[in-house]
Design brief:
Layout (H helix, E strand, L loop, with lengths): L1 E3 L6 E4 L2 H29 L8 H15 L4 E6 L8 E5 L4 H21 L5 H23 L4 E2 L2 H6 L2 H16 L2 H5 L3 H6 L3 H38 L1 H11 L2 H14 L1 H13 L3 E3 L4 E3 L2 E3 L25 H17 L3 H9 L3 H31 L11 E2 L2 H38 L9
Antiparallel strand pairs: 1-2, 3-4, 3-5, 6-7, 6-9, 7-8
Helix pairs in contact: 1-2, 1-3, 1-4, 1-11, 2-4, 3-6, 4-6, 9-12, 9-13, 9-15, 12-15, 13-16, 14-15, 15-16
Organism: Arthrobacter terricola
Protein name: Integral membrane protein
Keywords: Membrane, Transmembrane, Transmembrane helix
């Protein structure tokens, strides 16, 4: 990107990288703000809020933007209705689906900045982008704080940098094609200077980490499918809640957008539910595959799909992480190299001992990687609504990690063990397809 000297089209001085980064982050902040403001503006225009002032709408939009970017909001004492008790707390339940908006905008900015700079200059663009985004967050937190919603200005400045920087790094890495081009360090040359044993160990642990990523992605995909089936099965209950709210077309649309914003959270909730650890919907309320016991819940349509009571086939959901581990074990057999099994076979000649030990160790390693990732997702998806009993919503990260690690590890052992048989059958099928057809006229 260049700064034009005049209106004739002649190129002037090159735009400084820090300025280009600042403009990119300003665009991300502006567009993500519009995504938040437009639905709220529609509700405000149709008398959806009791407070009709512009100041209220602007502060509400700013508070929502901060929550979307991960900033917790401290709620003052409020009355939560005739069925609840007065309460206060921290609103920290982040709508991860809406957080994808600033992340994707930062991903786009990272690609553009990577094209505009050399590997040793990219930090200048990132510095300018982070400075402007932090200033925007701090200003939003300072202006939008009220007596009812207290906002820490430092958190408002620093926490939004997490999705911004993560998105820009991923986008820049996607554009550059390798970490060596991105940061100016030749990883291949560095690895070449290490010993062969170090390269084997690094390759083994790297493949196990990738297999853990395959397992958690497969588990989340299967959880999304299970959530879709559950929503379809309880569709009439969800529609009944919509009809009971009588929010109108616009109000129902905004409510649907808000629920879609929490859809990734619900997928992680489903994974925790299927793993056996379950999740909480308020203090003292727990939902799991073997039974659900919850207290009074807000009139939110998606809660109509919550399985209740004793579930006859709930234990079958425990097979979901095992299936994900089976796919990860098969993937490791095809793409990875089991150097630990090779090393163990050299040290101990008894194959009947080394084969199961190396397979169990692989299952434990991949399971631990997948469990750690599941714990991180559970930590991101959980939070507090800040009022009454709803100060604890979502899965417990530690127990989710433990359950997913154990079940994925079992699946990896099964997948890696039956993988050679599956590969053999696939090769035999391909060989049968390559056999030429019989031609009776050929001599």
């Amino acid at each position: 990107m260049k700064l034009r000297a005049d209106q004739t089209g002649n190129r002037g001085l090159p735009m400084p990288l820090w300025l280009q980064g600042a403009l990119e982050s300003a665009q991300a902040a502006f567009i993500s703000s519009l995504v938040v403001i437009l639905p709220l503006l529609g509700v405000w225009a149709t008398d959806g809020f009791q407070n009709r002032s512009i100041d209220f709408l602007a502060r509400l939009a700013g508070q929502t933007w901060l929550l979307v970017n991960g900033v917790p909001l401290q709620l003052a004492t409020v009355n939560i209705g005739t069925a609840g008790l007065p309460g206060s707390g921290v609103l920290s339940l982040i709508p991860l689906g809406l957080t994808l908006v600033p992340f994707l905008l930062a991903w786009r900015a990272g690609r553009r900045l990577a094209r505009a700079s050399y590997s040793d200059q990219l930090w200048q663009a990132f510095f300018g982008a982070g400075l402007v985004y932090a200033a925007f967050g701090a200003a939003t937190g300072f202006i939008c704080r009220t007596q009812d919603v207290v906002i820490n200005v430092w958190l408002a400045a620093l926490i939004p940098l997490i999705p911004l920087c993560l998105g820009m790094v991923v986008g820049a890495r996607r554009e550059s094609g390798s970490w060596s081009r991105l940061i100016g360090v030749d990883a291949v040359d560095w690895l070449a200077r290490t010993s062969q044993h170090s390269r084997w160990a690094g390759s083994y642990f790297g493949s196990a980490l990738k297999a853990g990523f395959v397992a958690i992605m497969a588990a989340l995909t299967l959880s999304a499918l299970l959530l879709t089936v559950d929503l379809l099965m309880h569709w009439t209950d969800i529609i009944a809640v919509y009809e009971g709210l009588k929010a109108g077309a616009l109000g129902g649309g905004v409510l649907t957008i808000a629920q879609l914003g929490y859809l990734p959270n619900l997928v992680v909730f489903t994974l925790a539910w299927a793993s056996g650890s379950g999740f909480y919907l308020g203090v003292g309320s727990h939902a799991g595959p073997l039974g659900t016991a919850v207290g009074p819940l807000p009139a939110i349509p998606v809660f109509g799909a919550l399985p209740t009571g004793q579930l006859d086939f709930g234990a079958a959901a425990l097979a979901l992480p095992v299936m994900a581990g089976l796919l990860a074990g098969w993937w490791f057999l095809r793409e990875g190299e089991n150097h630990f099994d090779e090393w163990l076979s050299i040290k101990i000649k008894a194959r009947w001992f080394t084969a199961p030990v190396s397979t169990v160790f692989l299952g434990a390693l991949v399971g631990a990687a997948a469990g750690a990732m599941a714990g991180v997702f559970a930590w991101l998806a959980r939070g507090s609504a800040g009022i009454g009993r709803l100060t604890e919503i979502g899965p417990d990260p530690l127990w989710t990690a433990v359950w997913v690690a154990a079940e994925v590890g079992i699946g990896v052992v099964i997948g890696y063990s039956v993988g050679p048989w599956l590969e053999r059958r696939q090769k035999l099928r391909e060989a049968d397809l390559d056999v030429p057809a019989y031609d009776g006229d050929r001599n």
